[in-house]
Amino acid sequence: MNKNSRNVIIAIIAVVVIVVIIMIVRSGSSSNNQSAGPGVQNPLGTASGDSAAVLPVSETTKVSGALSQYQNAELGISLKYPNTWEKEETDSGVQFIMPIDQTQVSTVAKLEADVTVSSGKCAFPPVTTANDRSTITVGKLSFNMISMSNSVQGRSYFNRMYSYQNGGICDLFAFSYIALSPDDKGLTGSNLTQAQNNNKAIQSTADADFTTMVKSFALVAPPAGESETQASPAK
Question: Is 41 helix (H, G, I), strand (E, B) or coil?
Fold first, then answer.
């Protein structure tokens, strides 16, 4: 056998080996996809088999020119909030960033509302002085409320929290307000007075909108799973 013939044989063997490897890899991938069974999502998030895609557990619907409704079946909550708020879902709930009117003279730096759902007993953070403690009724539900405020190095802080104990689950609502020191913006004289007045008005409006959101709260039934007594192994 001459040298050229030997090279041709080696090349053919190499091609056959590559083809066999490719076929093995494809066969393994196909088996993994089939083993997931119908209705189970693969890593890319698409349903395998002929089953329809899994329905989302949360949705946001615009209910009017001023309000939207957020509903999360997995967390079991539903509430309405102003359309001007920026919504972002978190691992344990949802966060709303309230807009700050930059055309007004103010030092407001943060307006935020957070809704968290966690297991366990509701507990407010420890505080030395609370502005107010009370309860409110939303439909047949009773919420505990606490508010607190302080000032550190010219910065003003205000928080209001509501909690609802739903069995072994705690639904916690928190409003956060932060205003910078007037010195940070160099405000003096009439501008300082205007900023202080605007700060109070902005805080009051945002706080009232937050409480309105809490009062729109409703419980939502979680998505129902398939009864194990009725389930049968995929073939």
Answer: strand
Give the Cα separation of 210 and 113 in Å (integer).
7
Q: What is the mean pLDDT of the chain?
A: 81
From 43-52, 122-131, 192-201, the region with the lowest mean pLDDT: 43-52
Q: pLDDT tens digits, residue range 40-66?
A: 333 333 333 443 444 458 999 999 999
Could you write out the three-class secondary structure of 141-195? Answer: EEEEEEEEEEEECCEEEEEEEEEEEECCEEEEEEEEEEECCHHHHCCCHHHHHHH
Q: Whole-angstrom Cα distance, residue 185 to residue 104?
A: 13
Which amino acid is present at 80? K
Instruction: Assign domain 58-219 to a CATH class.
Output: alpha beta
Amino acid at 203: Q
